[in-house]
TrEMBL record:
Gene3D superfamilies: alpha/beta hydrolase. SUPFAM superfamilies: alpha/beta-Hydrolases. Pfam families: Abhydrolase_6. InterPro entries: AB_hydrolase_1, AB_hydrolase_fold, Carboxylesterase_BioH. It comes from Pleurotus ostreatus. Residues 62-337 form the AB hydrolase-1 domain. This is AB hydrolase-1 domain-containing protein. PANTHER family: HYDROLASE ALPHA/BETA FOLD FAMILY (PTHR43194), PEROXISOMAL MEMBRANE PROTEIN LPX1 (PTHR43194:SF2).
Length: 355
């Protein structure tokens, strides 16, 4: 088992001169901060402080973007497994959406003052902030592969809206259970889509969001659906990092209202589907689905690899016994699927022979 060095970061919103020409009306990407963690193998770090191994600087930098209602630490079991199974991972970064996780706590006052669309922070806002990070000195010269889950997948695609396509910004993009759909298909299945959306919003607004302690929250969540179907490590990460301690107990960092409204902001997901037809001509797109079609039906899954619509997908993988919440349910199996993709993009270190 490899030991990971983990560092926390806070980044300002996107650069206004870069964002405003193409950003839809909300300016959350300019006024809100994002929070992140960087993961590095301590053995690699020790070598880099001395004499780096050949090829280390060419290793991949992975960016992990979570789904609605999650937070960056829920990726950690998957990140750990990837470092253990893939060679030449330079580093990994996991980010909080501006109204999720640690970012929700940091931006609490700013979020409470925003009145437009109930304070919605869209995937456009998150994508603009992530693209600003991609352009920063933190990853200058890195070989970056974004890995997004659900709304995080739409965000990963939308970052290309704010980045030059020549030279291409990424060697590949990995989309895990992407909530990306063409507008015409959404409208053709509008009754099913709206019924599903209204159900998720209703459940989000009425579910329990506070407990006496984080330990009580972990015990309560572990016995109830859907958390009882999750990997135990991810449930513990939710209790430890998805909640903040108050005088009256532990509460979810992401306000129920902010999570609920995120489900209703669909325009960015439509545009992500349209962008796939453009970027897939130059950037390899890899899809990872759960075996169970509990959220995204087959008709939408198939549409994302529809060559007749211009969406050219390099590979598609299916993780057994997983549903839409694949990151939470099967982190190790997901890591295997991601490592299969990364194998084609990792530059192996030359074998050193003794003369």
């Amino acid at each position: 088992m490899c030991n990971l060095d983990v560092q926390s970061f806070v980044f300002a919103g996107a650069i206004s001169s870069v964002v405003r020409p193409v950003l839809p009306p909300t300016n959350a990407s300019l006024s809100l901060h994002i929070t992140a963690k960087r993961y590095r193998d301590t053995k690699t770090q020790k070598r880099q402080r001395n004499v780096p191994s050949p090829g280390e600087s060419e290793g991949l930098t992975l960016l992990f973007l979570h789904c609605v209602g999650a937070h960056k630490e829920q990726w950690e079991p998957t990140i750990q497994a990837i470092f253990e199974r893939a060679s030449n991972i330079r580093e990994a970064w996991a980010f909080d959406w501006q109204n999720h996780g640690d970012a929700a706590v940091l931006n609490k006052n700013a979020l409470s003052e925003r009145k437009d669309d109930d304070g919605a922070v869209t995937v456009y806002d998150w994508a603009a902030a992530i693209s600003a990070f991609v352009r920063s000195d933190h990853v200058k010269g890195h070989n970056i592969i974004p890995i997004g889950h659900s709304a995080g997948a739409a965000t990963a695609v939308l970052t290309t809206k704010y980045l030059p396509l020549q030279p291409k910004p990424y060697p590949a993009i990995i989309l895990v259970e992407p909530s990306v759909v063409a507008k015409e298909l959404f409208e053709a299945t509008i009754d099913d889509r709206m019924e599903q959306m209204e159900f998720v919003v209703r459940m989000t607004m009425t579910r329990r969001d506070h407990w006496a302690s984080k330990d009580e929250a972990f015990a309560w969540l572990s016995k109830r659906y859907p958390w009882s179907t999750w990997d135990t490590r991810v449930v513990k990460l939710l209790a430890d990092h998805g909640l903040e301690q108050h005088e009256d107990g532990a509460r979810l960092k992401c306000h129920r209202k902010h999570e609920a409204v995120s489900y209703t902001q669909v325009e960015g997901h439509f545009e992500a589907a349209a962008l796939l037809a453009t970027i897939s001509k130059t950037i390899p797109i890899h899809l990872v689905w759960g075996e169970n079609e509990d959220i995204i039906p087959e008709i939408i899954r198939n549409s994302l690899s529809d060559a007749s619509a211009g969406r050219s997908v390099t590979s598609t993988r299916v993780v057994e016994e997983a549903g839409h919440m694949i990151v939470q349910e099967k982190p190790d199996a997901l890591a295997n699927a991601i490592c299969e993709v990364l194998h084609d993009y990792i530059m192996p270190c030359p074998v050193q022979t003794k003369l």
